Queue: 2 jobs
Job 1
Amino acid sequence: MPTIRRKFFRNKRYFYLEEQVRIDQKNKKIQVYLGKNIPNNLARYRIKLAQKERDLIIANLPKLFILEKIFNGEQISKIEVLKTQFKYKLLGLSHFATRQLWTRYAVQFIFESNAIEGSKLSQSEVKAIVKNKYIKKTIARKEIVEVKNSIKVFPVIRGTQFTLNQRQIIQLHKLLVRGLGIASGYKKVDIIVNNKPTTPVGRVRQEMKMLLAWWNSNKTSQRHPLALAADFHQRFERIHPFTDGNGRIGRLLFNWILFYFGYPPILFLYRNRQRYFNALDQADEGRKNKWYWYCIQVYKSSINWLLEWPA
C-alpha cells in the first residue's frame, strides 16, 4: 500500500508518494515527488507510481516468477500490467465505490457460476436477490437460496480467516448448500461427470490430502499465482469431492488462491462453459496447454472487465 513520506533537506520539507515492491527477497523502494505540500488530488501521482511499479516488475520477471512454456514472460507481463492497474484503481476509489465494485463482481460471479451449473436466473434476478429487492414469485425457492448462500460465502474467500485445508473446504461447501437438500461433507456415492469417473468415494479424503500437500509445497515455488490456481482448480474438479456444488466451490477456491497472493479475481462466463469444460477435460488427460491458455485469456478479460467500472 503506497504511503506518503516526508523528507527534509536543508531544513525544507518535501513529500513523496512511496511504495515497496518485493524483488528477490528484498524490498525495492519506488517513489514519486509530490512537492512541498501534499496535493489534494493524488490521482496523477498514483498513475506515475503505477508506471514505475509496472516497469520494475517487468524488468525483474525472472526473479519474481518461474517462466514456463505457457506462463512465459510475455503473458505474465500482460497479467502483471493489468494487476497493477487494478491495484491503483482501487486506491483511487472511495470506500463506497469500492463496495459497489465488489458487489458488482459478486453479482456477476454468482450469476455466471450458478448458470454454469444449470441455474436459470437472469443477472437482474440475481442482483435483486443479492440486494434484497423485489423478487418474482415465480422464481423457485431453491434458486433464491442458492444465491443467498453464495453471497454469504463470497466474503469468506475475500477475508483473512479462511485457510486452505480439508475442514474449512468442507465448511465452505456446507455454507454453500445449506437448505438445498444436498448432503454436506464428502460424497457418499461415486459420481460420473461427462462420462468420466471421478475419484472413488473411498479415495476422496486421501486425494484431497495429497492435493493440499501439493498446494503447501508449491505456494512458495514462485510459479505465477494464476498457474497455481489453474492447476489447483483442475485437480480439485477431477477429484469432485462433493455430491453437488463442486464447480461452484472450485471456482471460489480458484479466486481464494488469487486473493491469497494479492491478485484480482477471475470470472468464468456461462456463455463459454463448453470451452471451459473441454479445456478441463484435456487437462485431466495430461494435456494442460489448452487449459492454461484458456485461463490466461479469461483472466485478462476478467481484469479488464473490472477496470471498465465505472465507465
Job 2
Amino acid sequence: MVAALLALAMIAGSPASPSPAPASPAPPSAAPASAVEGIWHNPKNSVAVKTGACGDKLCGWVVRANDEAQADARDGGTPKLIGTALLREYRPSGRDTWSGQIFVPDMGRTFGSTLKLVDTNTITVKGCLIGGFFCKTQTWHRG
C-alpha cells in the first residue's frame, strides 16, 4: 500500500462512531489555514505532502514519494503520484480543524476527510467511508 494515507486503504479495519451533523454553520478555525501550510510527512516517511491554498480552500500535493509508494499508486490506477492532489478542498470546520476530501492513490478513490492541527509540527488526517462509519487516522509530522 502507498503510505501516503495509505493506511486509509485499510479503512474497514477501524470502525468509528458516525459523525453528527452540525446544527449550524461550522465555527471558524482558531488557527488560520496558514498554520497547516508546509511540507508534511506520513508516518512511514514514504510520502511528503505540501499543503497550501487552492483558491479559498486548503489542498495538499505529493512532492516526494519512495519507489514502493509510487508503485502502489500505479497499481491502483494513479500513474504519476508526485504532483497528485491528495488533500482536496478543505474548509474550516471547527477549532483547528478542516474538512474536505482525501484521494487514496492506491485505491483510486476519494473519501470524506478531516485534518486537525495537533501542534505546530503535527497534524492528524482522518479519512472515512460513507457517513463516517469506518475511519482511519494517521499522524503526520512537519518536514
